[in-house]
Every structure is written in C-alpha cells, then in structure tokens.
Amino acid sequence: MKKIYRQLFRIVLPISFQFLMMSLVSASDAFMLGFLDQDSLSAVSLAGQVIFVYSLFFEAFNYGCSVLAAQYWGKGDKKTVEEVLAITMRYTLLVGLIFTLATFFVPKQIMHIFTNDTELIARGARYLRMASPSYIICGFAQIYFGILKVCDRAGLSSLIGSLSVILNIALNAVLIFGLAGFPRMGIEGAALATVMARIFESVFIVVLILMKKSVPLNIRKMLMMDTSRTLHKDYWKYTVPLLFNQLGWGGGVTMYSVIMGRLGSDAVAANSIASIVRSMLASFCWGIASGVSIILGQMLGRNELEDAKKAGGSFVRFSIIVGVISGLILLAITPALLAFVNLEGTAHFYLKIMMFYASYYIIGNSLNSTIIGGIFPAGGDTKFGMWCDIITLWCVVVPMGMIGAFVLKLPVLAVAFILTLDEFVKIPAVYRHYMKYTWVKNITRDRSADN
Predict the structure, then answer these.
(1) Rounded CA separation 128/124 (Å)
(2) Which of 137, 276, 142 has the alpha carbon at shortest distance from 198?
(3) What is the mean pLDDT of residues 53-63?
(4) Using 50, 70 and 90 to split pLDDT, how confident is the model at 447?
(5) E strand or H helix at 296, and its extent?
(6) Closest-CA residue to 205 (of 195, 217, 193)
(7) Which of 75, 222, 312, 401 could pair with 86 in a Cys bridge, judged by C-beta atoms 3.0 to 4.6 Å apart?
(8) CA-CA distance, 164 to 201, in Å (whole number)?
(9) Please, which residues have CB within 8 angstroms of residue 442's CB and are 6 or more apart in sequence?
C-alpha cells in the first residue's frame, strides 16, 4: 500500500498544485477588481459562471477520456490512447467554438441569465466579449492536461498550467490597472489576460507535441476519418453519463449563483470570495480524485482487481481525513481573510458566516469527489454519479433554495446554508453503492480484433 500512496502523491501533488494555481487566477481577479469597486468584482464573478458551464463539458469529455485511456495505458496499448485523445478533442473543440461564438455575439443575453441588475449585466457583458476567444483555446489545453496526467506526465501538465497562471496574474495587474505603460482596461483587462494565458498554454503544448514529449494528436481521427466505431461507442458509453452528471451537478451549482445573484451585490460578492477560497483548499481533494481514478484505472486495466478493491477502501478513508484537515484550515484562515478583503459592512458579515459553511462543506466534497469522481469512473461505473447528483441537486437542494429565497423570503445566510446541503444529502447512497463493488472491472478490449 505504501507503493500505491507514493504513486498517488506523484500524481496528486502536481495535479493539486495546478488546481490551486487555477484558483489563484480567480482569486487575483477578485482581489484586483475589488480595488476598482464591488460591482466589478460581482460582475466578473457572475460572468465567470460561463467558463464554469463550459468546463462541465470539457471535464466530462476529459473524464470519459481518462476512463478509457487510463485502462489502456495500464494495459500498454498506446495506439488506442492516441485514438481516445482524438475522439475527445473532436467534441471538446466543437463545444468550445459554440461558447466562443455565443459570448462574442450575445454576451448581454447570457449575463441576464445570472442577474437582473443592469449594471452587473453591462459590465459582465464587456468581460465576456473580450474573453470569448479563450473558450475554444482553453478546451484544447485542458484535454491535453488530462492526457498528460493519464500518461504519467502530470508534472509537465502542472508546469504548463502553473506558468500560465503566473502569466495570467501578472497580466491581470498590468492590464487591469494600466501598469508599465499599458492602458488601464479594468474588467476588459482581466478578460484579455485570460485569453493571452490560454494562448501561452496551447503554444507550450504544441511545442511538447513537436518534441515528442506528449501523445500526438491524430488530426485524421479527430476529423472522423479512420476511427474505430467500437472505440467510439465505448467512449460515449462512459462519457454520456459523465456528461449528464457534470451538467446536472454543474447546472445545479450554477443555479446557486442565479439564486444568490438575485439576492443583491453583497450576497454575490461574499459568496464569490468564499467560493474562491474554498476552491483553493479543495484543490488537494480534487487532485486526489483525479489521482485515484488514474491509479485504479491502470490497476484494473492490468486485471489487478483485488488490489484495486483494497486500494479503493484506503482512498475513501484518506479522503475523509483530507476533508477534515481542509475544513480546519478554512476556519483558521477566516480571521485573516476578513481583515484582508475589501468588502462593505453587510458583505463582510456574510463572508464570515459563509466561510464557516465552507469549512464543513469541504468534508463532504472531499469524500464524494474521491468516490464519485475517482473510484467509480476508474472501472467504468459512470451512471450512478449521474443519477445521484441530478436527484440530489434538482429534486432536493435547488428547489429548497428557490423556495427559501423567493417564496419564504428567508435571510441571505439561511438560503446560503440550504445551498450547502447537497454533499451530505447524497453520502448514504454513495457509500451504499460503493460497497457493491460494481466499479471493480476491467473494461478494455482486444483492439487487434476490432481493427
């Protein structure tokens, strides 16, 4: 088991660091725009929900890629891994193009989904139009980050992502405030910094491909030429439930922003800061889920079924410990955060309570991320998570939040509390399904017979 944990940390640490660095971009946006005014912070926070929605698609495609690629990589079938990458890239770039066009041509209509505040709509629309090229570019980079992790190159993925984040934060300061002779662009500066950082990532990845340091992208297969029908069916068999899971879960989380967005700028500002800080601490939890999925997938691809079963149990216990420690850290840093952020009186009070909510929420998030996002997909068990998240959010928490906010007119903090219940509502069903061990399965095929 020590050997497995050494392998886990070799994967988890760079992935977690990359997640953390990505969270720092949102933190730098919030921090720097907060110096302009609270409305700028709130507008960009709501506009950021668009990249969140897009991430639901490319993460689902990436998870589907990882389900197959990890097992085939563990089996030693690199040609099939290349084909899985091509299939994944095809659909990611297509969806990315749709988001790029939508945010460029109809940004105000998109912002109106999240808020009815005319000032926030106007500012958010400016951000979205400037950031529009980033979506399709981001999709390309994120799929390659995923395949690098599967193919034991998590360090390279982390290096590229981290350098990109450093560049993004530096450009944020230069373009938002007009430093070093550049014009003061405000919100548009934050958006342009994001576009330039995504271009940097993609150029770096292309260089790696040319240097043969990464899995190559087969353009013919990406364009649906010479693609295995059986592999294509396998890909969608595991990806469709993941996609519905992502959309169901992400759509529910987006509804949280819609609900909070109609409770005023103070609620939006406090919620955005609390969410950013929680995401930064949750980076290690998400890294564990990704690492667990890759390690167990490779074990199952090698038919090490009993060893994978034992490792899964150990990973579950480890995720609970990580969640508790993360929650305690959130509580410990709250006083410093409250002294540091530039929020008005009511928003400042909201943030204090929301940080307490975040401290217990992250425990359930750590456990569920590891099981639903790591253990189950490793063996192709992707349907349960879909139904679990959709039912929990859309049949329980979102209706309760809307009733509390718009029918019962509950206070902001009461509504915020309701919106933290989803992770705990689903824990009994998740653990019961885990104990059935339906995820302990080798899903690879003999590709020589298929081709």
Answers:
(1) 6
(2) 137
(3) 90
(4) low
(5) helix 265-301
(6) 217
(7) 222
(8) 6
(9) 71, 300, 301, 303, 305, 379
Alpha-carbon separation of residue 186 from 38, 135, 172, 175 (angstroms): 13, 20, 9, 7
The token pair that represents 266 in the structure block:
């103070």
Residue 208 in tokens? 């790696």
Candidates 44, 286, 59, 298; CA nearest to 189 is: 44
Q: What is the rounded (10 degree) CA torsion for 17, 23, 24, 25?
A: 120
Residue spans of alpha helices (H) in 341-375? 345-370
**120-130: per-residue pLDDT in tens?**
999 999 999 99
| 150 vs 171: CA distance, rounded Å | 31
First to last CA, the chain: 38
Which of these, 244, 239, 156, 238, lies nearest to 204 by C-alpha position?
156
Distance of CA 181 to the CA centre of its chain: 35
Identify the weakest region by mean pLDDT among 154-158, 195-199, 376-380, 409-413.
154-158
Which pLDDT score is estimated for 16? 81
Q: How is residue 161 annotated by DSSP?
A: H
Q: Which pLDDT does position 253 carry in this prediction?
A: 77
Stated pTM of the model: 0.79
Q: Residue 143: CA atoms inside 13 Å, Cβ hemisphere, count?
A: 32
CB 16 within 8 A of CB 283: yes
Query: Which residue do the tokens 């990589």 mark?
Result: 73
Alpha helices in 37-106 (DSSP H): 38-75, 78-105
As given in the structure block, the two tokens for residue 355 are: 């940080």
CA 415 from chain centre, in angstroms, equals 24
Smallest Cα–Cα separation from 86: which of 225, 242, 294?
Answer: 225
**Residue found under tokens 């840093």:** 333
Is 392 in contact with 311 (CB distance < 8 Å)? no
